[in-house]
Write a structure and sequence with these properties.
There is one protein chain. This protein is of the alpha/beta class and about 400 residues long. About 45% of the residues lie in helices and about 15% in strands. The strands form two sheets. A seven-stranded parallel beta sheet has the order 4-3-2-1-5-6-7, with helices on both faces. It has a four-stranded mixed beta sheet with strand order 9-8-10-11, covered by helices on one side. The protein is globular. The chain starts with 5 loop residues before the first strand and ends in a 6-residue tail after the last helix.
Length: about 400
């Protein structure tokens, strides 16, 4: 088989998923090539990445540093906003590893240009799943999931008729506080929330894992990625993070995808699809060493964010955009020590309750709902702050 070179733009290259994507690319220089890098505020790391991979397209959140970033990449490099980079003719696959609403316009740009989009940004599909999937169909573009849970479902569905799917079952580790007494959750710290028991992820998604908001986001994403109604998507707790998700079929058969909890596996799967190749750099799964796998239903009193997300996903319309925007602000404020851990679902719930939603919003309405939710959530966080913290 003749191997072709896949040209990749990594948007969010300095974040956790972006760095692990570059780890995968390093191992396959004959097959994978970086042509675009877009980073955030960590310009020192972005400069290092540009010196190593010599992309021809570069961008960062601080446009004042564009000459420094370009110089790191070499004489052939040029500055390109993420939307332009995502649609560039020299790009075959766009990996969206940004956090929050920042990846929405670039994702739409890539899909409209007919690119394969490896999507690791949860909020893009949560906010605008209907619009995103319609644009993918219109542009005959591929959406390739990068989250381990969605990658697992995607792999289980290869060669299957989607009409034969009974339900999707997403697995959840439970995050940093899965064993902490419920009465103690009011007093946990951001540092504690970032101690995930099985996964190495960025700050936002690690805190979302502790609240289980991430699993609610993933249920909404799965609804759009696989065209399965929300009522046929379930969540099960699985502390070992070895089974990444299940698909149950109409005949009662169940498929699962297993592997070590390492994002490089689903990243490589998305970059090299439809081929499977060696060299993700991940240890092979040894079930004899693992010995036992455990599953249980989530305790909703412990994880109110999961309930809120499932309710918003079922409502649809503009409510998921409010969910995502309010959660982003609440998590940020918790990380800064401005509110408590159990204030996160209170802020999100208040935003959803106050929102005057639309059932079939266009992109402008979705962005307006997101902007409104952020202002509302920040005001609510300020009201929750103890007097000594104001």
């Amino acid at each position: 088989m003749v191997q072709t070179l896949t040209r990749i733009a990594v948007l969010g290259s300095t974040g956790s998923v972006g760095r692990q994507t570059l780890d995968v690319i390093r191992q396959h220089p004959e097959r994978l090539k970086v042509v675009g890098l877009a980073g955030g505020n960590n310009t020192t790391l972005l400069e290092d990445q540009c010196r190593e991979f010599k992309p021809t397209l570069v961008a960062c959140s601080d446009a004042n540093l564009h000459m420094t970033i370009k110089a790191s990449a070499g004489a052939k490099a040029r500055w390109a906003p993420m939307e332009e980079m995502a649609a560039h003719p020299d790009v075959d696959v766009v990996l969206i590893a940004t956090v929050g609403a920042a990846g929405l316009s670039a994702t739409l740009s890539a899909l409209r240009a007919g690119k394969a989009v490896a999507l690791a940004n949860k909020e893009v599909l949560v906010m605008a799943g209907d619009i995103i999937t319609r644009e993918a169909a219109r542009g005959r573009a591929e959406l390739r999931p990068v989250d381990s849970e969605h990658s697992a479902i995607w792999q289980c569905l290869w060669g299957e008729d989607i009409a034969s799917v009974e339900k999707l079952i997403l697995t959840a580790s439970g995050g940093a506080f899965r064993d902490k007494p419920l009465r103690d959750l009011d007093h946990v710290t951001p540092r504690e929330a970032l101690r995930h028991p099985t996964w190495d992820m960025g700050r936002k998604i690690t805190i979302d894992s502790a609240t289980l908001m991430n699993k609610g986001f993933e249920a909404i994403e799965a609804r759009w990625l696989f065209n399965i109604p929300m009522e046929r998507i379930e969540v099960v707790m699985h502390r070992e993070s070895i089974v990444h998700s299940f698909v149950e079929f109409a005949d009662g058969s169940v498929k699962a995808q297993l592997g070590e909890p390492d994002m490089r596996l689903p990243i490589q799967c998305a970059l090299t699809y439809p081929d499977r190749i060696e060299g993700a750099g991940v240890p092979r799964l040894n079930l004899a060493r693992t010995k036992a796998l455990h599953f249980e239903a989530p305790e909703m009193s412990r994880f109110p964010c999961l309930r809120l997300a499932l309710e918003a996903g079922t409502k649809g319309g503009s409510w998921p955009a409010v969910l995502a925007g309010a959660d982003e602000i609440a998590v940020e404020q918790f990380a800064l020590g401005a509110i408590g851990f159990m204030d996160i679902p209170k802020v999100v719930d208040a935003a959803l309750s106050a929102h005057d939603g639309q059932a079939d919003p266009d992109l402008e309405a979705i962005l307006a709902a997101d902007a409104w939710s952020r202002v509302f959530a920040l005001d609510r966080c300020s009201a929750l702050q103890p007097a000594g913290r104001r």
